[in-house]
Specification:
- The complex is a heterodimer of chains A (874) and B (142).
- Chain A is an alpha/beta fold and 874 residues long.
- Chain A is 40% helix and 19% strand.
- In chain A, helix 18 packs antiparallel against helix 19 and helix 24 crosses helix 29.
- Chain B is built from five helices and five strands; from the N terminus they run βαβαβαβαβα.
- Classes of the chains: A alpha/beta (874), B alpha/beta (142).
- At the A-B interface, helix 22 and helix 24 of A face helix 1 of B.
Amino acid sequence: MRFGYQTVAWGRRIDDLESVLGQLAAVGYEGIEFAQAPSEIFVRDESNGDKRRPVADIGELLRLVGKSKLELLGFAGGTVEERISFCGDYRPQYLYVDSWQDAEVALQKDPPFTLAIHPHPFMPISSMNQIDSILEAPENNAAKRKDHVMFLPDTAHLTIVGDDPAEAIRKYKDRLAAIHFKDWQPHFGRYSHRYARGFVPLGEGIVAWDPRSRAGSREDAPGILDTLREIGYDGWIVTELDSSPKEPIECALACAEWLAAKGLMKTPNRAHLKRLLAKNWPPRQHDVCPPQMELRFLQVLLQALGKGIRAFYEGVTEAFSRVVPSQLVKLWIFSPEDSRLYLLSAKGPLNVPQISHLKSTSGCIGYVARETRARDFNLELPEYAEHFEDKPVLAALSPKRMLSIPILNPANAKHLRYVATIFPEKGAFAVDSQALAHLGDDVAMLADCVMDERCAEAAGRTSYECGQSQSKVELMVRLRHLLLATFDCEGCQIFLVNDGRDRLEEGCPGVTEWTAPLARRYYRKGDGLTGKAWAARDMLFSLDARHDFRTSSGSTEKELSPERCECVFAPMAKRGGDVMGVIRLTNKRGRPGSACSTMFNDDDAAVLDSIIQAALPRLELLQTNERQLKALGRMTHEFQGPIVAIRGAVQLMQNSISEHGWSAEQLFELDYLDDVWNWTNLLIAEVESADIFRRSAQGITPKVSKTLLLKDVVAPAIHQVHLLLLERGYSPGRIKHGAFDEVPLLWIDRNQFRQVVFNLLSNAIKYAQDKTTFRVDIESGKIGADYVIRFSDYGIGINPELKEAVFEPGFRAPEAVLKDVSGQGLGLSVVRAVIEAHGGRIVLTGFKKPTRFTIYLPDSLERTPPKGAVIQPD
Amino acid sequence: MNKHVLIIDDDHLVMNVYEAALRKRGFEVTRFGGEQCVDEALQFLRERAKAVDIIVVDIMMPPGEALKDQDTDQGMKTGVFLLKMLKDSYPDLPLLVLTNVQNEETLELVRRVAPQTKVLRKAYCLPFDLADEIKSQLGGGK
């Protein structure tokens, strides 16, 4: 196998070809594929003081490539006509084509070019079905053309559309022009400013380089690397990395090092490369834009920084209008999903109706997407109006010609992010479009900073808000408020995938649960986005009047599109993880008086993704907690059966004894029955405590009846701890209580309160120092509008700093651990949950000798049940 | 003639002791507790409903053929639907619910389909307590 590199990371233009060639050769590559149009490849002109000039012709290019001991593999940049014309009579290894129309042009040449049919997501040829239809078409499969119509698979592109790259390579092993090695990480907001379609360094994505398990099969699916070894592939591997914040050669080096780690390439010599870079690193060329113009432009733009994204958009139009006096300047954002531009900001003498009209304006960019240089549209108004939908505004302004300035992703020359359109007062010809293109690069870089800041801020706020949530419901409510505020939109719905284990309780507006199969059924009718894309968890898709949502069964889903509105859907999925839900935002509001679009755009997607990524860890954690609580619920339920059976058996035996009058000896042995009975009392109390703890996470519903505290609660609870006392040799008489005369019948859940008293008493017993000092006093009284119950014990005490922590679930005092006192740390959390469910509170009012817990219950319980309680018939 | 108690509960371990206590107190007991307990009990009632004086029903049970199409939440709410069927088909037969289910949503459903029916919790209603409760329901006092 031989390894080449594609120059996409160098951006739209290569400033110094010889330096790039030298660097790639130093890393260890043997071939080069150009991602730039031939006219964008610049060389140093020695005869002109080393100024840059475009490479003269194919002859010069081949000479320079050969000088670096590299081989020219092909061209991927510029139009196919441009590339063919540049090659003249020369035939490179292959000609990269991603549309059939391009292919036909190249095949008509004599001799024809060898085509490398390249699948590209969102391009006419994207999947293996389409590749099959081209390569297996009778005319292309015929001996005469077979060698000229080859396949150039891209490992990442095929993964994105759900095809298996290893299978594709195996299928066309005899017709491979080369193989593009690229990795991909599924990422919502795929076109977001930084990630440039989610392409990541080799080995960091989900492309199946190595074997992986296959659903429904015991055999692993073969990986790409094994497949190449198996078919004995000895052709070209072209690696590339679309985007990276690093210098372009760093991308090439990262790919080479991964290949070396896999034993495919020689380990690159970093030290040598470093020396080479120090010597040859070309300074960036800034000679295309007059410095004064750039300074004026940046001064305006810098003032807009730090004031939010809308201010930045407005700053861009303001800055352009300062350097080019114009009738109208507009900034658009490019939506790769539908290849349209959506207005972000406009600067011009606009009146209110015009502003209102502009808000819903979108434009068709057509060839601008492919032709990424700044250019004069040179359109007459009627023709222009076909592309941009703001005819009434233009009619009023009577513009002359328009200039369009593409603003590209700094990390990816092929990724158009924004377009500025300008109607210069003096006409377009008077303006240096190259200079404006340079200003476009400045905008792109500053936009990166603004978006980084915006995403980081959104993620930080989300982490804080979500971190406060104690339940899934609360998390969803907080997340929903955050989304509404961040995007200033009218509606936000969160659809959570219900996997059958996690159900949201009712009462969470805006949050709906779907069953997982239902959620997975959704796909967008029309271009590109299918169930497969959902499965790939990579989508930003919007819904407006032009699109219908349908389920795969064909029925329109009302839940999903209850009304026709502008909205955006975002899958809640960790990068590469399962879809946990979907967020729908509807009707973004525009700022009054501003011409900013109310469409959701790619920048919103990047922020939305940051929010989702920051919220998901908490959601996962809470779901795990919920599962654990469910498991606890099942466990407590399972325990209850055997306890009831044991108690039933004890009751039967006691009944027999009393009926038949057994001998004294038998009666003595059967005293043990009392112990069994008492142990079951303890077991019931522990199981109850666990059960209340489980329910407290979702809010306890007390089942109340008129209850006498002493008779129905305190006395039975003391009876329940009887065995604990005996076990430790403590005298039951050392638990003293008053007559509770002050406390009348109260509307409380007697079982839950019995649990409260049991937990407090069992703590006092567990943490007592010895049998001589063990003592518990239970007193009652009335203070103001509260009935008060006070528990005092004389055990090891509690550190005052822990007065709040002791009520947290799972908290265990250090002394408890040292004393090896058994327990799960649930007791006091249960106590607090029960008391609060009754509208009361519990406070630690003494810390040592006595340790004192004081319970305050509102005297309203005398007359009315607590809020939300269920009345239990006596 | 002894009063006849029909028990529909798949929890063998627990119901053995309840059955023993009820027999000791002089009740005739018929118990259905297998996977098909719901179907078998309904079949028994179709043939001998007149011979039954009271029915004791659990909530969590396999739904059987009779309730397999109902939303029993994998058997967690079988008793709710069974109670409704029994109420509709045998409106004069007294019913008792004996269960360990504490899910408030499920208990609310029980109250809705059988508002007059007493719900007893196994943990606090021991075998002889059940016998006493049945006696009181059938008008015999304790």
